[in-house]
Task: structure prediction
Amino acid sequence: MDGGQRGRPPTGPSLLPDELLCEIFTRLSAKTLSKIRCVSKSWLSIISSQEFVKSHFKKWDNDDEFTHHSIIAKYINPHLHVKQCSVYSLLKNPATPAARIDYPGENPPHSVSVVGSCNGLICILLDEQDLYLWNPCTRQSRKLSDPGFTGNSRSFNFYGFGYNESNNDYNVVLGSISSVERKIEVVIYSLKTDSWRMIDNFPTCLPWLETGAFVSGKLHWAVSSCVCYCDARVVSLDLVRLDYGEVQLPGCVEDASVLTLGVLGKCLCVSILYCYQPNVIWKKNVGLWVMMEYGVVESWIKVASVRPYHAPLCISAKGEILLTSSSDFGLYNLGDESMRYPRIEDVDDVYLEGHIYVESLVSPFADEERVHDQQR
Result:
């Protein structure tokens, strides 16, 4: 018996060199890695390292097939709940299954709004009050500390979520505008320090929507100087320098246009609704414009004109734009300008909104907290 065993090669998870393990692990999904990280301490160390987390994320974030991207969608029937579905399936198949997923603070049920997604983390707002950072893939979440103010019934709050690459920090921005004094207060949260600080000198204007778009290291909000939306502008906040700027819009923006900012192909995108009369709003086309080179006004190009109103989520390698409205998803073909509507299977719920994210191992905890948690 001993002689037979003597000639066999040794086996076990620790016998492969770390370089080869990293190469293998990089090809696996974040969900799979979350499960196998418990096989051994050496596997846990590799999969949890910041270097590996970054390299794994970059590989799949740049995948133009979107095989590791998902949609997080809000539904109601009869209570609000959250489901997720595959972007790859939406792009390839006529019908896509959606699975219900628990979100932080779901029990008891709370209202939930998505502030934004970045590197696999999603920032959500519960009951217009509590902010969470959440990784739906690893199911990790953390409730953010109290920002010091949350506004009141006579205030309008706006938000943003982004990543400061220069110091590897995630930031949440909360602004509050008093409807009486028009006083604007803005604070920014740092994941590294788990603290908030005040930012001064936000431009005197009114954001149109609650959430901002994160592109090129900056958060962006569509704003106006008055409630009539007659002077549309885009205000930016640089998360490194913490200073404000302005992005010039394409020359086609007319008075009383309604703007929605987004991200398409990692470029700033603006949806322009050319008419705001309530009785004809759904009869007008929406122009989708993309700033191909950030900060260069001449680089704005109109990529589509769609109706009814849709907001872009992503663009495939085959030139199809995945869009979402208040009721469904659509795929707009840039080649023949056709639209098709992929179906979500076995869903009787009422669809409200959807947001795209890439499945990753990025943690909603700071490095020190993450290391301490692994050592426990």
